[in-house]
Amino acid sequence: MAKEADAPRGGSSSSARRRRKNRNSNNSSQNNDTATNGKAIGTKASKGTVVALAEHSGSEPGTPTVTGTPRSESQGGVRSQALDSATLKTRLLDNELDVVKARPLLAGRVKRRRWFIAGLVFGGLAALTGILYANPTKSVHIDRMHDMLGELDISSILPDSLLPDDFIQDITRLLSLDSIGADSPTSTVNYSKGDFQPALTLVAEEKLEKVHNVILIPGIISSGLESWSTANCSRPYFRQRLWGTSTMFKAILLDKECWVQHMMLDKKTGLDPPGIKLRAAKGLDAADYFITGYWIWGKAIENLAVLGYDSNDMALAAYDWRLSYHDLERRDQYFSTLKSQIEVALRSTGKKTVLVTHSMGSQVTQYFMKWAESKNGGNGGDSWVNDHIEALVNLAGTPLGVPKTLSSLLSGEQRETVQPLANYLLDHFMNRNELARVFRSWTGLMSLLPKGGNAVWGDLLGAPDDISSSDTAPEMVSYGAQLRFDDETSKLDNQTMDDAMRLLTRVLDKDALRLLQRDYTYDVFRTQEEMDLHADDHRVWTNPLQHQLPNAPNMTIFCLYGHGATTERAYYYTADNTDSVDDLREEAGTPALRIDKRQRAHLENVDIGIVHGEGDGTVPLLSLGYMCASGWRKPLYNPHGVRVVTREFVHNPLAAFKDIRGGAGASDHINILGNYDVTADMLRIVAGRGHLVEDQFTSDIRKYAERISIP
Fold this sequence. Notes:
The relative contact order is 0.09. The chain has 25 helices and 16 strands. It is an alpha/beta fold. Helix content is about 40%, strand content about 10%. The strands form 4 sheets. A 6-stranded parallel sheet has the order 7-1-8-9-11-16, with helices on both faces. Strands 10, 12, 13, 14 and 15 form a 5-stranded mixed sheet that branches.
């Protein structure tokens, strides 16, 4: 009865409400008793409500009021007011009880919400890293994200006591990227912060400043290509880059046929197809970043700016790398423009130019110097190079070509011939037939085919860069056989480099073969008579074994390259339904030849059909270093005594979780453009300190060179 007397008007509705809310709960009666007896609920507000109710009823808190006690009228009025007040207080108490009971549910929702937010953060960062294939803070284009990550406190996102404090701090520190580069071999380097090193250090310690004009010449697939077409499917891409930037990825994924039409060259002319016009982007941003976050020349430009360079005395000579060098001049007047730019720089500043090249850019520059001298080219005469060019800095140059170019043209398997970022899309959204068609139309790619034949790359008896395996180690395959056929279905013999190049001429269609023979040769000249006879033949200007360095005794060639990264050197191949090389000519269709990707666990240097050797991850050591360490130090190839300096750098990257590009110690093919020591050498050269940069050998290239029988 006491409980009934305490129940105010509306109490039945309150009880009904509580019953509805607690229908699935086993402790509803306990909650009702707690509310009626005025016991403490665990909060100060609830306790205060019970005290107020007791004061109005004239009893101690927690003492029940007994019904039927006689009272005067005044007492009844007071009692009526007390009951009204009690009704209000009880309603407040009911609401507070609802809040208290809802707190566990609310806490659960908060925890789930925090986990959801944490999942979004981690997932977004992982996706961004995967897309950029790089540490995002390395791009000036997303500094705002860096600022956000620097202020991010993971412990504010995750529930308390869910993860150890030290683990949360480690995750926060990793995302803010404050410590990346701290354990680099050069402790002062921290490229993740964009600190313009090593230039700042060299300016402070060695007082470096700009001296010579600088022109940067990028490698294959580094320059962005813009659409200038105005017909059909081209219109949505007008003045947008179909190579480089996110537009390229969008086009491959959503408009592949149109993208392929733009990227292929005409089979007959080697130039633009009808109705298509693709041109190299201009300016420093043509090759500073491939896409946002993935730097190419970006770091070199930053460091040169510290020495005082700007767009008035530093330029990037981008070009359409799909074209043969002959067609670069024929269509775009590329070499005429480059020659004029160098001449204007000399007249305006009184200083010669340093050409800094990367990858295929070294061959473009070799061609340019011969073209500038030749009466069939720039007609500058024998002294033009000596008068205008201070130094040639080859970064990861490709003087003798790249074997993986052979697999690209033979079977449409590019295996990182393109940038790793583009590699994924091309490999997953284009078949070998499409890739082979595109690659074979790029006459510029043909300039990267290996040069020197068996004399450089070896024969079936062995190769100069063969590595002997120990008695306990797995067997090492010789590099002398460039293509090996060991499956039972193929009846083809193993192919040396000379054989493989002949095989390519049988695989290519007649138009591709005609353009290849029109623009290039890949042999070796061994006499001065051969050199003189072909001095003005543009086909030999890309092959350092078939032309001589220019008459420039005051010029220096610097060869800076990395080694120690696993590099494609030879291949295991198979052929579908083929008994003879005569069956391999392809006018259309999927290439009959393909890399045989069967596992050969007993062979130490073979993986999924690729025979690995030493190099920078893209270019084998023989191509990187032979001409620099040996060939250009011989009178036949360097009759005028051009100074040649070779500097090798061991590939020493950071762990991928610290810097996916490898950090300041990486010297693989692309990331050497951000290497601390390589950049320091380049800065000394452009600042007029090239005489202080001397040979540095850390590989066996000189031993390999002694095994090559070339005069």
